[in-house]
Amino acid sequence: MTYQPKVYRKQGGDELVVASGGVINVETGGILKANGTQAAFVADVATTGTYATDDDAIVAAINSLKTALVGAGIMAAS
Asked: Helix or strand or coil: residue 71?
């Protein structure tokens, strides 16, 4: 019988794989970084005031979130 871990480095060591059922658990105080930088802060979107009535403000908030995800390497740029 062989042991097959669900989280492992591919041969050559250039890629970390999380197979089906595998988990990466970032404990309290842990941080994920892309190229040495943590994802940018994205402010909460209020449900009253500007965001409740201004479509442009809502679009700006969504775009800020998208930019943070792309910057962290979580989402592709295009």
From this structure: helix
The pairs formed by 25-31 with CB atoms below 8 angstroms and a separation of 24 or more are none
pTM: 0.52
Q: Per-residue confidence at 50, pLDDT binned at 50, 70, 90? A: low
Q: Could you tell me the two tokens for 40?
A: 């940018």
H helices of the chain, where? 50-53, 55-71
User: Which region among 40-44, 46-50, 68-72 has the lowest average model confidence (pLDDT)?
Assistant: 46-50
What own/partner pairs with CB < 8 Å and gap ≥ 24 does 31-39 have? 32/72, 33/72, 34/71, 34/72, 34/73, 35/73, 37/71, 37/72, 38/72, 39/68, 39/69, 39/71, 39/72, 39/74
